[in-house]
TrEMBL record:
tRNA-binding in keyword set: no
Family indicated by similarity: Belongs to the neurexin family.
Membrane spanning stretches: 1091-1115
Species per Swiss-Prot/TrEMBL record: Neovison vison
Protein name: Contactin-associated protein-like 3
Lineage: Eukaryota, Metazoa, Chordata, Craniata, Vertebrata
Domain F5/8 type C: 14-160
């Protein structure tokens, strides 16, 4: 979980403008008002032409499209109106596609509404896409626009290059990966991939072992199901067989992302933005499987497959198993991969064009085929609605009508003629399930036929007149002016999707309909299926069954014990006291102790006495239990099972003032304790499976019965009557009342092995009284709370919500609209009337975390950030901080490191992170200027060394480096475009991180030490390792800092004047530490008397003015002499001066080659 949050918070910088650099031909549109309003003028801030795109007609069927040239990762979009006009868009829909066909709507935060647009012509509305999307084509569809103008748009798209490996399965092929045992992590398997398909069923992956053990991921009716079989026959069903289901409508031919983290006894399963977690209570190992895993199918059908299965038909992308690129291995034809069937390494794009009927008033009118003596129509549809008009037509000759409707999830085809009885056919069932269903209907001669999903039904008719094709076919509904058959009745129009429409054996091209050259339509979306599963995730609580239509969902709360729109409100009182207040007498009642919480109602007995109400919970051992040894073996303890779950028991006790349970012990030559030290030979076990040896009214830990405390035991030498071991029956009646230990789940009496020794006991029900939790008997709050302060202190509701049943973290507020304003890892924080950007985990500063924190390093200088020292401060301040975890010897399964640098010196050490276990990460520039990254994650192994020879990086330019490690997989990004992925062999975990060092260091491996002897001379900025930002801690301390600075390190506003500049920036330096051998931690600036400081400043200013006058006179006399001499930069210890001199020298060489080379 830590790694997941870490990766989400610190992902790559991917925000390069993509659209503004494209040629005009990359923009297209539905229509344009004039040539100067064409799509080529639609780039953000563009003012030529008419200053943006405007369509010929402003309606909701218009769109602006951009072709990015290749598949890109898109992280944000921005819009403007037409320059200097009254034209802008106030709301729009964003669609995306890989091929320019089969578009999909990007839905923001599970919302079905569009993006917020502009309120004027020139302001920019920026929206961050969370999560990002990958696509080549984007479409902006205006929904609403300026009431005083028309549609006007200028747009920008932000993102970066997206690289991927693809493999295509044809439904009869698969990949079998055989891996080395040493390459398998003993703790966890991690499988990640993306897939897309148009089929509803298929095996994505399968791995099996002995005793029918297997892990299988498969599509079933468009849902993704993870099947787990532990192979342990002795386990109860929840552990032996587990099924996790995610997703719906996954046969949409769009990419879906899958991540499976499989541990020994736990599974974390993620599909797109939804996750499920399963924790097994047994001891079986889900990782104890064969060293083979198949993708796309099961070769030879597998030895453990006992379920129907189909091979996958579609595409995979970026398939990784424990960091291994499976598709790359397949391309290289390695012996580890066995390819079965026809597998290709590209993904074809579909040519099927779906049509979405958005409302009950939608319709599509298509012309019939003239001259045919038959009717033939085929199509496929999917919908959630149980009823709707699908098709109606009237023949060209004679008043014969054909009407096809969906009614109660079934198809009914009617053929009617005035004066003749109508002929009806009913076919299919359950067709409103959101799946694609194929329909084929035909009328020829005297036979009417309809086929649904391959099952045919037919009927004979005796209608008179010529049978011919209808003049116009209306699909989904009728125009308002139509009064034909099926129109204007109580049945609403169809809402859903249609595709593969054919009339008279002629396929219909919906693109021609969109362009206006075929038929007419209303309220359609063409080239997309906009069907949404409103039951994913299900908002029905407590087991309520979710059902849906096109625009709403409902919950069936029958037999759940709850009521309300989402089965949230309990039908039962929360306690026996509440039943008493309603005037009920003693008896059995259902109580719901946590109200609307996740626990269900429990059946208890409420005993209403004169002054107290008791809640009684029975168990399965209320009769006298006799204990006697057989064959000198100790008797087994008795386990008690209560009529309600342990969670419900705890809720009942949490809401009670007092709980108790009576235990009657009967003994004959049987003791509770034996030996002089009172060693217990009998005990009982409580709710938390802890063993207790105290009895009755004593305090926990005291091995005395009630008679021992009261001094009235039968034998004063003992503390319990049973311990006297008399040859006659004695008893101890005890009352256990320590609520935290109740109820009793086991009783063990082991001293029954001697002759004539016996024991028996009776355990009474759990009794609770008082009603501390539900005294007011009010229903729980249903809604959203944010910005809560208690006595002026802000409370972390999100953290608390993760631990509270029935409460979920997250509350849409200002951050949902304006969170994109926080950059560079800054976190948006809600305020009562706005937002604030928390830059604590960012290497930047400022109101929006955009102010770069940079420093110039002189020769021999260094900055050391001590994680352990930092944790000593942050532990008391923030127990959840990253450094606090490090202080405890945290094992990092992954980390993110970023930095920007500018230098001309080699070799140079850019970054060094050490640990207490001699593990480290170092980033250096080699003598030839190439980038080298060294990981050593095991002290007993040699380090992993990776050279990234993209270019000579010691060229005085600003370069950015991002390193992202997850287990053994390391991804490196340089200058936001050059990427490389490598796999470590030295280990997968970074243990006990100690410190981070910049510049010169002591004590490292020879190559790192060789680079560090020169240290680093130049400019560093945006340095970050996880949430630790050493330069920020040094230059902008917010408290006692854990940073030590040695040598000359000077603050700078930024390392480069502007993005892309080649020349070094001229920055104002601020020394933060003078060179000292020992070094010292940064502290606050010295406080001096203001008057003294002012006097010193005045004297210095006067002296400088005098020196300036003298220098000017001398300079004037020597100017003619000096102007022809070459000037040499003065020596100094300023890192910036040295860097600028070297860069200027390089610049002059490159710009005036003839002066230096002959």
């Amino acid at each position: 979980p830590f790694l997941t949050r870490f990766s989400q918070r610190y992902n790559y910088h991917c925000d390069v403008p993509l659209a503004s650099t494209l040629p005009r031909e990359s923009f297209s549109c539905s229509s344009q008002l004039s040539r100067s309003h064409g799509p080529g003028f639609a780039s953000l801030n563009r003012r030529d032409g008419a200053g943006g795109w405007s369509p010929l007609v402003s309606d909701k069927y218009q769109w602006l499209q951009v072709d990015l040239g290749e598949r890109m990762e898109v992280t944000a979009v921005a819009t403007q109106g037409g320059y200097g006009s009254s034209d802008w868009v106030t709301s729009y829909v964003l669609m995306f596609s890989d091929s320019g066909r089969n578009w999909k709507q990007y839905r923001r935060e599970e919302s079905i509404s569009g993006f917020p647009g502009n309120t004027n012509a020139d302001s920019v509305m920026h929206y961050q896409l969370q999560p990002p999307l990958e696509a080549r084509f984007l479409r902006f569809l205006p929904l609403a626009w300026s009431p005083k103008g028309r549609i006007g748009m200028r747009i920008e798209v932000y993102g970066c290059t997206y690289r991927s490996e693809m493999v295509n399965f044809d439904g009869k092929s698969s990949l079998l990966y055989t891996f080395n045992r040493k390459s398998v992590s003993p703790a966890k398997d991690v499988i990640s991939l993306k897939f897309k398909t148009r089929k509803t069923d298929g095996i994505l992956l399968h791995r099996e072992g002995q005793n029918s053990k297997h892990v299988t991921l498969q599509l079933v009716r468009g849902k993704l199901i993870l099947l787990l079989n532990s192979g342990c026959a002795n386990l109860p069903s929840p552990d032996a067989h587990a099924t996790l289901t995610l997703g719906s409508l996954l046969d949409d031919e769009h990419w879906h992302s899958v991540l499976i983290e499989l541990g020994n006894t736990h599974v974390h399963f993620t599909l797109d933005r939804h996750s499920q977690h399963f924790q097994a209570e047994g001891k079986c190992d889900y990782l104890d499987l064969d060293y083979k895993i198949s993708f796309g199918g099961i070769p030879g059908h597998g030895k453990s497959v006992a379920f129907p299965q189909k091979d996958f038909h579609g595409c995979f992308e970026n398939l990784y198993y424990n960091g291994v690129d499976i598709i790359d291995l397949s391309k290289k034809h390695t012996t580890q991969i066995l390819v079965t069937g026809n597998v290709s390494f590209s993904c074809s794009h579909p040519q099927i064009v779906p049509v979405t009927f958005l409302s009950s008033r939608s319709y599509l009118a298509l012309p019939g085929t003239i001259g045919e003596d038959k009717v033939s129509v085929t199509f496929q549809f999917r919908t959630w609605n149980r009823a709707g008009l699908l098709l109606t037509t009237q023949f060209q000759h004679g008043p014969v009508a054909l009407v096809l409707v969906l009614n109660d999830g079934k198809l009914r085809l009617s053929l009617s003629q005035p004066g003749h009885p109508a002929r009806d056919i009913t076919a299919g069932a359950g067709l409103s399930d959101g799946q694609w269903h194929s329909v084929s209907l035909s009328l020829k001669g005297n036979h009417l036929n309809v086929m649904v999903d391959g099952e045919a039904a037919s009927v004979a008719h005796s209608l008179h007149g010529q049978i011919d094709s209808g003049e116009t076919y209306y699909l989904g509904g009728c125009p308002d002016s139509s009064s034909g058959p099926g129109c204007g009745g109580p049945l609403a129009g169809f809402q859903g999707c249609l595709r593969l429409i054919s009339i008279g054996d002629q396929a219909v091209d919906p693109i021609m309909v969109q362009q206006g050259s075929l038929g007419t339509f209303r309220d359609l979306q063409i080239d997309t299926c906009g069907l949404t599963d409103r039951c994913l995730p299900s908002y029905c609580e407590h087991g309520g069954e979710c059902s849906q239509s096109w625009d709403t969902f409902s919950c069936d709360c029958m037999h759940t014990g709850y009521t309300g729109a989402t089965c949230h409100s309990s039908l039962f009182e929360q306690s026996c006291d509440a039943h008493r207040h309603r005037g009920n007498s003693s008896g059995f009642y259902y109580i719901d102790s946590d109200g609307s919480g996740p626990l269900g109602p429990a059946l208890v007995y409420c005993n209403m006495t004169e002054d107290t109400t008791w809640t009684l919970v029975q168990h399965n051992g209320s009769q006298l239990a006799k204990v006697k040894s057989l064959n000198r073996e100790s008797p087994q303890p008795v386990f008690f099972k209560y009529t309600v779950s342990l969670d419900q028991l705890q809720a009942i006790m949490d809401g009670a003032d007092d709980c108790r349970q009576e235990l009657v012990l009967r003994c004959k030559k049987s003791r509770l304790s034996a030996g002089p030290d009172g060693t217990p030979v009998s005990w009982w076990v409580g709710r938390t499976n802890e063993t207790h040896t105290y009895w009755g009214g004593s305090l926990p830990g005291a091995q005395k019965c009630a008679c021992g405390l009261q001094g009235n035991c039968l034998d004063s030498q003992y503390h319990c009557n049973c311990d006297a071991a008399r040859n006659e029956w004695t008893s101890d009646t005890v009352v256990l009342s320590h609520k935290e230990h109740l109820p009793v789940t086991q009783v063990a009496m082991r001293d029954t092995g001697r002759p004539h020794s016996e024991a028996a006991y009776t355990l009474g029900p759990l009794l609770c009284s008082g009603d501390s939790g539900t005294a007011t008997r009010q229903r729980g709050f249903l809604g959203c709370i944010r910005s809560l302060r208690l006595n002026g202190l802000a409370l972390d509701l999100e953290e608390r919500a993760t631990m509270t049943p029935g409460v979920d973290p997250g509350c849409p507020g200002h951050c949902s609209s304006y969170g994109h304003l926080c950059h560079n890892g800054g976190r948006c924080r809600e305020r009562p009337r706005g937002i604030a950007c928390d830059c604590a985990f960012s290497a930047y500063d400022g109101p929006f975390c955009e102010s770069e924190i940079s420093a110039y390093f002189g020769i021999g200088s260094s900055v050391i950030y001590d994680f352990q020292e930092h944790s000593n401060y942050t532990t008391s301040k923030n127990s959840s901080s990253f450094a606090t975890l490090l202080h405890g010897g945290l094992t990092l399964a992954g980390e993110m490191a970023t930095l920007s640098f500018r230098t001309t010196g080699t070799p140079s050490l850019l970054l060094y992170v050490s640990s207490f276990y001699e593990e480290y990460l170092s980033v250096i520039l080699t003598p030839n200027g190439s980038l080298q990254i060294r990981y050593k994650l095991d002290r007993h192994q040699e380090p992993d060394v990776f050279n990234f020879g993209f270019k000579n990086f010691a060229d005085g330019w600003l370069h950015q480096v991002t390193i992202h490690r997850e287990a053994a997989v390391v991804s490196v990004e340089v200058n936001q475009n050059a990427r490389r992925q490598v796999v470590l062999s030295s280990g997968t975990e970074f243990n006990a991180v100690k410190s981070l060092m910049l510049g010169t260091i002591l004590g490292a491996d020879p190559d790192t030490l060789r680079a560090s002897l020169r240290g680093f001379t130049g400019c560093l900025s945006a340095v970050r390792f996880g949430p630790a930002a050493p330069l920020k801690a040094a230059l902008r301390p917010s408290g006692p800092v854990a940073v030590t600075v040695r040598g000359h390190v000077a603050a700078a506003s930024q390392c480069a004047e502007s993005k892309g500049t080649r020349a070094p920036a001229r920055e104002a330096n601020r020394p933060i530490s003078s060179g000292t051998d020992g070094g010292e931690a940064l502290v606050s600036a010295d406080r001096r008397d203001p008057a003294v400081i002012g006097g010193v400043i005045a004297v210095v200013v006067f002296v400088l003015l005098c020196l300036t006058t003298v220098a000017a006179r001398i300079y004037q006399q020597r100017w003619l002499y000096k102007k022809n001499e070459s000037t040499v930069p003065p020596a100094g210890d300023s890192a910036e001066t040295a860097l600028k001199s070297e860069v200027n020298m390089q610049s002059s060489v490159s710009e005036s080659q003839r002066e230096y080379f002959f």
